[in-house]
Amino acid sequence: MRALTVKPGTPNSIQLDAVAPPPESDGSVLVRALALGICGTDREIVAGDYGWAPEGQDRLILGHESLGRVEAAPDDCGFAKGDLVAGIVRRPDPVPCPACAAGVWDMCRNGQYTERGIKERNGYGSEYFRVEPDFLLKLDPSLDILGVLMEPTSVVAKAWDHVLRIGDRARAWTPRNALVTGAGPVGLLAAMIGAQRGLEMHVLDRNTEGPKPKLVKALGATFHTSLDGLCPDIVIECTGAPTVILDVMGRTAPDGIVCLAGVSSGGRKLPFDIGDLNRAMVLENRVVFGSVNANRDHYAAAAEALAKADRKWLAGLITRRVPLERWQEALERRDDDIKVVLDFTA
Ligand code: BGC
Question: Ligand 1 pocket, 157 CB below 6 A?
């Protein structure tokens, strides 16, 4: 079968390879790939800046934003041939740490977790893959190709879950409005969940052209190119851009919570007054925290959020579908791209 593989650490080693069928040791459910979402992490791995091959191997099968149909599954495992499914990215560490032992591998304490298509485990970028039933989720069949948005939705489902858990410290905390910075796929999906929760949503992006402003408006949210005048209860930061991060940290309402969900590349130093930030945070009980990955509960929440989302709106997030044999095009960055998807059915 064909698979997209890379040699982690070696820039541009990516190729469409012929590989052996997925081993049973990957899981008892055999899935035929329908689509694979491409994200910034994949591009970092392709550039040789991130990613680890499975132990004893040279190359890693890329891909963690999966969508497929069950091809074969053991009896009574909860899955049957034809189910529309997506696989979970992370696997608990082998120790396991207390978090992984409790099923919250997204909070792994010792860094020995593995991740499909990213860290020491082959990914989902192959025509067939296998998954353990405990790490696979069913999607509403009517989502069809839109189910490829499951993984990024799980990441923001976690961000929202943790914001609300932290908010609980204020007992009667009733957030009214929230700001999402960055109208990429992650930001838009974060705004979608906020809108589903009935919050007044604001989304910041520098792009006034293309589909992003329209998608924001279609959620009933307000599109901004500057943060002037905003004082949100909640911020979900999805740009990873240092100036935006600095700006949002000093801007929340009392008891406000900033979730950092975008990964920065680092290397850019900005002068800023840590004492001033400290003063504002202490005197107004503000929180800034980071969030990555997702556990099974977050995938379940993501499946629910996608099932009740407007299908036309979700379709607007997938701006390009590239057939597998033209995979190079999927890695290009183009103006107006939101989510680019490799199509395994074309
Ligand atoms: C994925 C996460 C993963 C993170 C770090 C992100 O692109 O969505 O699931 O934990 O990269 O490897």
Answer: no
